[in-house]
Amino acid sequence: MTRVKIINKSQHPLPNYETSQSAGMDLRANLDAPVTLKSLERAIIPTGLFMELPEGYEAQIRPRSGLAAKKGITLLNSPGTIDADYRGELGIILVNLSNEPFVVENGERIAQMVISKFEQISWEGVEILSETERGAGGFGSTGVK
């Protein structure tokens, strides 16, 4: 298991995996007072968390499906990427896509975080790409069903 250094300046427990097969950990709002998001309004919600990812890893910040489906609350810049060299506080860009105001309470689970390995690439300039069955088809070109 990979170990990640973290500073928790919030009043909440560290993020954890809710089940043995979970890919993501819920992140909680760390607020002095509730924040109300009006319809189509966005705000950066602090978490009180600061971390040091190992080189070759990123943290992906994703919406919580329950908030999205039930309340119309999602994330902008989704999935957001936290790079291994970032040392600032994790902030979550919430947006209210519903027609009703939404109140973000202190300690509320507002997003999920998935830690992933990645590789950097180097470009190889060419004149021709290999042929595939799909070719240049995109945006629904493989069918409706």
UniProtKB/TrEMBL annotation:
Domain (dUTPase-like) ranges: 13-143
Gene Ontology MF terms: dUTP diphosphatase activity; magnesium ion binding
Presence of keyword tRNA-binding: no
GO biological process: dUMP biosynthetic process; dUTP catabolic process
EC number: 3.6.1.23
Gene3D superfamilies tied to this protein: 2.70.40.10
Binding site for substrate: R64, S65, G66, N77, T81, I82, D83
Catalyzed reaction equations: dUTP + H2O = dUMP + diphosphate + H(+)
Highest taxon listed in the record's lineage: Bacteria
Enzyme class, first EC level, given as a word: hydrolase
HAMAP family: dUTPase_bact
The protein's name: Deoxyuridine 5'-triphosphate nucleotidohydrolase
Phylogenetic lineage: Bacteria, Pseudomonadati, Bacteroidota, Flavobacteriia, Flavobacteriales
